[in-house]
Specification:
Number of domains: 3
Shape: globular
CATH superfamily of the largest domain: FAD/NAD(P)-binding domain
Structural class: alpha/beta
Largest sheet: 5 strands, parallel
Distance between the termini: 57 Å
Helix content: 25-40%
CATH class of the largest domain: Alpha Beta
Bound molecules: succinic acid
Number of strands: 19
Strand order of the largest sheet: 7-3-2-11-18
CATH topology of the largest domain: FAD/NAD(P)-binding domain
Length: about 525
């Protein structure tokens, strides 16, 4: 693997010194930054602003048992069951025991959680949860509510130096220890720091159909791999059962929150029949991987490219108030969700795997941390329980901040990568390669996986990675695509290594029996209740 991606010399690159460099301005990056000792000088970098992060788009909420402490046992149990036996139980216990404290911090910081008439937080339920324990903001705009408030507070902190057009190129390592990052911010810039926290979100753009924003290209995971970090659970890629069918799959798919099913919406096939009741005791609220595969089966059985979500049991007023974002977006696409069924299909949504970290959020490279979707703390196992992800950002962000505060590590002033001879200019057709990668990952490393298809795709990805690595880096698109190829290689290698199906990793080795990922075609407008 190519160690550093820049070509030539960094002699003229400006060098700045910080105590901590955080990369990513979603909830993980912002909350970690805000929990750091304010006497630490921190750079908070991202390739685009918080509004383009995955956090901003999160609809459902944050799962946390705020009052009855004995009910935490069932939250732990639901998390372990969803994770299909592969969670790290110690990490899960810490998440659920400590999470309410961090949610209380958000409340104290005036994050606008929805309240009931008596002033208590309103709670909802999503797939895999045996009780109502999910807090939300703005009905279905939780991510926006939390991210906006944290970004506002961060903007007023004098110790945080915020740059939202700084693209992470590499993590700098000296003598086996983290020494800073190399970023592109109107030119190469070196940010020296003894602590680097990677919070760059997920890898959704590696898949043709995803709810993730354009920024989710796995940059942090790829840079960490080049720096020698260990990754874990890369085969566990979560598909959300219900994304609104899209006329333009090159853009992200709009999520239809599981909370809608939590409030009673049901799934129907294109013939109008319900199909989840016999499949799982929780029916529409079964864990995500199960609902996803059932929808795919039903799509195949009925020869359709989508299924329907039916929320017509609720009034227009209720849906507009409780799910304003979904109500408005569906109306914009000609679907009145109080009267018409919503055409939906499963699409990529979340990465359970990532940079392996301990309870202190540190990787195997001293001084290199990761928080949020970029990290693999072990709390999600083979399948994440809905609305546990924002909770993970908070709890592990705080642990990361505490660990940095007590580390005593000092900046290494000599930390500048050595000059390297320029490579010849490459001839790769980047848009074509990017499309091919996304298309092949969707078909062959998605919901249903077959051995030969994964092997062929791995060979394709390695070839592409080699082409990109042996050419001069001419643009940030080039770096991003190389990051995507690096992460795809790790997903495919891990998926091939895990021979048994578990959680979100479902292997079908007999091509005759395999369920195809159906091609996308333009759906009709919302269906009509029969
Ligand atoms: C949703 O609202 O369905 C998504 C929540 C999550 O991904 O945890």
């Amino acid at each position: 693997m190519r160690r550093y991606l820049y070509d030539g010399s960094l002699e003229d690159a400006p060098v700045e010194r910080f105590d901590v460099v955080l990369v990513g301005q979603g909830i993980a990056g912002l909350y970690t930054a805000l929990r750091l000792d304010p006497s630490l000088k921190c750079a908070l970098l991202a390739k685009s602003d918080p509004q383009t992060s995955s956090s901003w788009l999160a609809q459902g909420g944050i799962a946390a048992v705020m009052i009855a402490e004995d009910a935490r046992a069932s939250h732990i149990e639901d998390t372990l069951v969803a994770g299909a036996g592969l969670c790290d139980e110690k990490a899960v216990r810490m998440l659920i025991a400590e999470g309410p404290r961090d949610v209380q911090t958000l409340i104290d910081w005036d994050v606008p959680f929805d309240l009931d008439d008596t002033g208590n937080v309103r709670l909802t339920r999503e797939g895999g949860h045996s009780a109502n324990r999910i807090l939300h903001c703005g009905g279905d705009a939780t991510g926006r509510g939390v991210t906006q408030r944290l970004a506002e507070i961060a903007g007023g902190r004098p110790n945080l130096w915020i740059r939202d057009q700084a693209f992470l190129i590499d993590v700098i390592v000296e003598d086996g220890e983290t020494a800073g990052v190399l970023a592109w911010d109107n030119g190469y810039r070196i940010f020296q720091a003894p602590h680097v926290v990677l919070c760059t979100g997920g890898i959704g753009q590696n898949y043709e159909y995803t709810t993730n924003p354009a920024s989710s290209t796995g940059d942090g995971i790829a840079a960490a791999l080049r720096a020698g970090a260990v990754v874990q659970d890369m085969e566990f890629v979560q598909f959300h059962p219900t994304a609104l069918m899209s006329r333009d799959p090159s853009r992200r798919f709009f999520l239809i929150s599981e909370a809608l099913r939590g409030e009673g919406a049901v799934l129907r096939n294109v013939q109008g029949e319900r199909f989840m009741q016999g499949s799982h005791p929780l029916a529409e609220l079964a864990p995500r991987d199960i609902v996803t595969r059932e929808i795919m089966r039903e799509m195949e059985r009925t020869g359709s490219t989508f299924a329907y979500l039916d929320s017509t049991h609720r009034s227009s007023e209720y849906l507009r108030d409780r799910f304003p974002t979904i109500h408005e977006e569906c109306l914009r696409q000609g679907i009145d969700i109080a009267r018409q069924w919503i055409p939906v299909r499963p699409v990529q949504h979340y990465m359970m795997g990532g940079i392996r970290t301990g309870l202190d959020a540190m990787s195997n490279v001293p001084g290199l941390y990761s928080v949020g979707e970029t990290a693999c703390t072990g709390v999600h196992g083979a399948n994440r329980l809905a609305s546990n992800s924002l909770l993970e950002c908070l709890v592990f962000g705080r642990h990361c901040a505490q660990s940095i505060g007590s580390s005593g590590r000092r900046v290494r002033t000599g930390a500048v990568p050595a000059p390297r001879p320029p490579l010849p200019a490459g001839k790769a057709d980047l848009p074509e390669l990017r499309w091919l990668l996304r298309h092949r990952m969707m078909r062959n490393a998605g919901i249903v996986r077959r051995t030969q298809d994964m092997r062929d795709t791995l060979a394709f990805v390695r070839d592409m990675k080699n082409t990109l690595e042996t050419a001069a880096v001419a643009t940030l698109d080039h770096v991003e695509l190389l990051d995507m190829a690096t992460v795809s290689e790790a997903v495919l290698a891990a998926a091939l290594d895990r021979t048994a199906s578990v959680g979100a990793h479902f292997r079908e080795s007999d091509p005759e029996e395999a369920a195809e990922v159906a091609d996308l075609s333009i759906p009709p407008q919302g269906g009509t209740p029969s």
